[in-house]
């Protein structure tokens, strides 16, 4: 089925009226993706403001540097904050920066807003909450900690499901780290593994005030419908707000939808006005152009060659933008285009699998081998999760072979001694091109949870700049270098043996992990 048919009413361009599919609107290079701005705000920036990071250590050091340099705002959204020494150092950096702000003349300007998941952030006696309470106590006017609680975990279900298992119902899964006008988008959480030997993806957008404003507003919107952590480790909702699991579920979800869509639509309107203003100002003979002629070359803002589109997925609130855009990208990818897709947890939705198996582009899908799966060696039932992923992978590979698509759709397993794998996203190479012109990077895993249960955000980065395309290509190559191609013999290895009970249970529980 073509998701374009579902999107057609939404993606009609204003002027001129064109009825062709979105990728045909601007057939040349990166511009063919401008249809995305009919759904979300489009931020045009210079590629010189984009830096792709490659390692957990680089990510961690950048977080510390950015926190220490922040003057106005620190906004961090993550699944959780760990409790180790490296995480404590991050908290110390926040404390130090807040202290400096407090000592500055006049009222302190710095505001810190942290959004985490309630269930994951409350796990154990020492947890994300206990890590952050000292900041709340020391800087009550400057620090806000919001804990999102899914509206789907309520009533008897909430009472019966034990800690850790309750996280399967739904989570705050967005990962965005923002400091003044610098934004880091990633799939990495704020935990020591993600700072040392858990491979993920990370991109820094420097000096991007409009993008920083958007994500600040998005985190604020989710924060407003979340539980607020108090100095005594209790939580309470903002005054007048419907409670996520004690209040009316429909009313809560409607309010959340309205808050988030207000952020998306107001930013989209702002960017459209900015785009129109820039377009008219750049016409020959315009007053702005003549003004610019008298300016020094250094004062001119560089012409954008890169476009950022934030893609939000919050199915509990009825928001499915990321799903729609991803399906359309997969549907419209032309013959001989190449899509490199990676996920730490290979559990694609049926819709994504159907599109991969039924469309024309070449696919190279990178996934975790059992040994680098985050659940490898876990205690109890969680220890069987890598085997469940092997079973899902084997089923998909068998379908590829049955349809004789092995040349077009190739699976590759990431393997690296002493490391785990958590990278997700895709790179799109147009037919005949050696470099990608689009990447998706952020929190979604392309699985059932990402689409249906959790709060997710990623960005589509579209660029026509060769140097940035080269950065993205090198990132992709570096990840895929640590992988081996999956074949029939892969599943004959002793470590790929899947117990019968795992095979029987996997179809019943695959929508929860």
TrEMBL record:
Comp. bias (Low complexity): 281-300
Domain PLD phosphodiesterase: 168-194
Pathway participation: Phospholipid metabolism; phosphatidylglycerol biosynthesis; phosphatidylglycerol from CDP-diacylglycerol: step 1/2
GO CC annotation terms, alphabetical: mitochondrion
SUPFAM superfamilies per UniProt: Phospholipase D/nuclease (SSF56024)
Record's keyword terms, sorted: ATP-binding, Lipid biosynthesis, Lipid metabolism, Mitochondrion, Nucleotide-binding, Phospholipid biosynthesis, Phospholipid metabolism, Repeat, Signal, Transferase
Domain of life: Eukaryota
Gene Ontology molecular-function annotations: ATP binding; CDP-diacylglycerol-glycerol-3-phosphate 3-phosphatidyltransferase activity
Gene Ontology BP annotations: cardiolipin biosynthetic process
InterPro entries linked: PGS1, PLipase_D/transphosphatidylase
Region (Disordered): 279-303
Location of the protein in the cell: Mitochondrion
EC number in record: 2.7.8.5
This protein's record includes keyword Glycoprotein: no
Keyword Transferase annotated: yes
Reactions the enzyme catalyzes: a CDP-1,2-diacyl-sn-glycerol + sn-glycerol 3-phosphate = a 1,2-diacyl-sn-glycero-3-phospho-(1'-sn-glycero-3'-phosphate) + CMP + H(+)
Role summary: Functions in the biosynthesis of the anionic phospholipids phosphatidylglycerol and cardiolipin.
Entry's family note: Belongs to the CDP-alcohol phosphatidyltransferase class-II family.
Protein's recorded name: CDP-diacylglycerol--glycerol-3-phosphate 3-phosphatidyltransferase
Name of the coding gene: Pgs1
